[in-house]
From TrEMBL:
Lineage of source species: Bacteria, Pseudomonadati, Bacteroidota, Sphingobacteriia, Sphingobacteriales
Domain annotation PRISE-like Rossmann-fold: ranges: 65-355
Superkingdom field: Bacteria
Alphabetical list of InterPro entries matching this protein: NAD(P)-bd_dom_sf (IPR036291), PRISE-like_Rossmann-fold (IPR055222)
Protein name as annotated: SDR family oxidoreductase
Amino acid sequence: MSKIALVVGASGITGANLAEKLIAEGWETYGLARTPNTEINDLKPVAADLLETASLRSALAAVSPTHVYITTWMRNETEAENIRVNSLMVRNLLNVLSEKRSVEHVALVTGLKHYLGPFEAYAKAGFLPETPLREEHPRLDLENFYYAQEDEVYAAAKRDGFTWSIHRPHTVIGKAVGNAMNMGTTLAVYASICKETERPFIWPGSAAQWNGLSDVTDARVLAAHLIWASTTEAARNEAFNVVNGDVFRWSRLWKRLAYYFDVEATGFTGSIHSLEKEMANDADRWLQIAQKYTLKEEDLSRLATPWHTDLDLGRPIEVMTNMSKSRKLGFTVYQDTEETFYNLFEQLRASKLIP
């Protein structure tokens, strides 16, 4: 039987990479976003606002997906508002699709804030889980929009009879423009500014992150995992961690990234050095760099999200995830993390997004 995929958030890091892989594997693939991705060959764009049911119903009138991949979210000022808005987006989508009776599986991408807490209490003392993080770790006694999104999927699955999977990547590394959580491109842009201005490439995070073990998730690994879980009987109705499969220390990788960009690396100096503050006055500098090298994106805020990189690298504990659950069920994809970063940098250069 034919598989028809609806990728919700197809313009983002996760959604774009997923759409490309689905198309490569022969799926009929629709990409939903407020501003649809038109750069992926054979991706069928769907322009809709997840907060507007009428907009969704109209945009999806001719689309009857068998598999739905929810890879998007909207950032708000408070966690209470995050919960209200992001749960509503999922609920609206699944309510509209419920009328079609075509959906067989819904995959939801969340992340490690499931274990570490929401932005307002992110990885604070008193809420620090045991690492490596495991899927059976109970929900924190905190408001968290990831929990609200999950609950919307569970409720719709019970009502409509589809299967589901929850995917919890660590920091996702991949190419995207205008993405709210984009460490890889943020570091590439920061290093490019350091190179152009002869500034040192300063580690922005904590001692625990500098010295401890960590892992990340290549967007291509996440794409493979989403397809695997949504088409594998044993993986149905389960939540999974998703990472590359190796571990690293930033104390080594930071120097390697600096070497790649030919900049001077400065490691942990005894206190956190906020990247958001470090890059606060770089918008004009980036504009000049973009014009000098004829880059495609002159708006620094469309490429770099230093506030989120500060959250990730400022954690007071080392953070790594356990992938045993997926491995035991047959998911064996592995990716070397250092190569993940270099591959991304090469993509950014080829796309004229960094010098």
